[in-house]
Amino acid sequence: xxxxxxxxxxxxxxxxxxxxxxxxxxxxxxxxxxxxxxxxxxxxxxxxxxxxxxxxxxxxxxxxxxxxxxxxxxxxxxxxxxxxxxxxxxxxxxxxxxxxxxxxxxxxxxxxxxxxxxxxxxxxxxxxxxxxxxxxxxxxxxxxxxxxxxxxxxxxxxxxxxxxxxxxxxxxxxxxxxxxxxxxxxxxxx
Length: 190
Hints:
This protein has eight helices and six strands. It is α/β, with parallel strands linked by helices. The chain has one domain: Pyruvate-ferredoxin oxidoreductase, PFOR, domain III (Pyruvate-ferredoxin Oxidoreductase, domain 3), CATH 3.40.920.10. It has a six-stranded mixed sheet, with helices on both faces. A hairpin with a 7-residue loop joins strand 2 (33-40) and strand 3. Helix 5 crosses helix 6 and helix 6 crosses helix 8 (177-189). It is globular, with a radius of gyration of 16 Å. The two termini are 31 Å apart.
């Protein structure tokens, strides 16, 4: 099987690392060779966070080069735009429509780019946007955006519901399990 690549991008504190851990566990459970690489920007200060998840029969490197990502799972709209050059032709971006102002916008030195979702579409990119924050809040916590997005991502895999639930159970603390299951289901079915 050819190696598959997903980039998970967002802002520090959004749960991108948990999402990559969950996806890695799911893929390992299927017997794939999996490599996960975390690239932290100023994640502790709300900066960009990128995780590469690569899987296949044999994966030699954890790094995804420009033009190689089958999918970008983005926790924030500007982060999706920032990494479009990594997407391969015919690839897909699954993006939370939430906007989190970066430091230059907060400091008044720049404006948040307008109509990013529309601009991504004009580039010929297959964009699947959803308000994951609203769905996470419906599930019980704004911190469940990551599981909402994993639910949406699940639409593009042939894994069973049981496989996803097993990966979730082994990745999140038991006291948050029901809320995360609900967030996953809302993302998968919205």
